[in-house]
Amino acid sequence: MPDVTHFPKANGRGLAGWQAELVLRLLGNPTGDIPVAALARSCGLSRSYFIRAFKRSMGLPPHHWVMHRRIERAREMLARTNESIAEIAVSCGFADQSHLTRVFHQVVGESPAAWRRRSKAQAAEHPNLHSSSDRNHREAAQRDPPDN
Hints:
By secondary structure, the protein is mostly helical. It has two domains: 17-60; 68-143, Homeodomain-like (Arc Repressor Mutant, subunit A), CATH 1.10.10.60. It contains eight helices and no strands. α4 packs across α6, α4 (62-80) packs across α7 and α5 crosses α6. The N and C termini lie far apart (41 Å).
């Protein structure tokens, strides 16, 4: 899956740095639906030019980029929570469980349920292996304990 939070330096045909930052801020909540035309207007571009510039800068067209962000969030929730797949689907901005399952399978290559089972089985087999975000969170908590 492409890194949807990083974008290469814009060239003459992609989004300018300020446009890319603005769009990332506007798309910061992957559950919301912001029309592409509104994103284009916020950047001072036509809809068609915006879509081409976005794809050149971000590697994916806007709709696919948003779907990948939603899938990333769903994967985090599948791995870390026991919420039902239907609840995860809605909280990630999908219409329903079927929509999540269809897009998840297209992007990841397996269903959310199969991915969750495999992810939980791997975590059980290797309890000492944690993701870098888990490790970073623990290190930050050790450095900066909460004030009581």
